[in-house]
Give the backbone structure.
Amino acid sequence: MFGSPGSGKGTQAKLLKAKLGIPHVSTGDLLRELVRQGAASGALAAKLRSGLLVNDSVVNDMVEERLMRPDAAQGFILDGYPRTEAQAEHICKWFDAKGIREVVIHLAVDYNNIIARLTGRRQCPQCGTLYNIASQPPKVDGVCDLDGQTLVVREDDREEVIRERLAAYERQTTPVLDYFRREGRNLIEVDASTDPPAMVFEKICQAMKHDCAQNAS
Ligand SMILES: [Zn+2]
């Protein structure tokens, strides 16, 4: 699954996992697990702590090992991988060798919508309650319903921070999606701009069914 910050990818992955009964394999979680178990080498752990990009081969091996576990025998949801063109090429070859058929789901969004939504978020510094000035406003402008504290914009929700995260996502993901397109892999684009999560999920299910039917014929 691919989706920019604010696309609701995490929510959709959860829904898909519940519906299909297959594991959600997140490379972020796998890397954290390695470090927690002390299984990561000192150099790898240091890289992870400093947020540096991990070598393709390390990530590829880690993902393959995870996908070979019994719970993934009927399928899996990959999240946060492949992150580079080399990883994409690697995993496609692996899929082909194993006879695994992929569906690449790209949650396409209008960045202006995301920016409007995320910059509308306000948080209470006292109790942590989140509001949105557009969709979930407090009863009184700028004030927490629960304790009357003045709401604030979180650092992560500042427009320039969001724009930078979107640009970083774009820089990283475009070459990977281009690879899938160029190689004629099974890529479906789902518009996730404005619909509520349940409707986006419905679109994903329909696209996947359509895909299954196409491949069966
Ligand atoms: Zn509050």
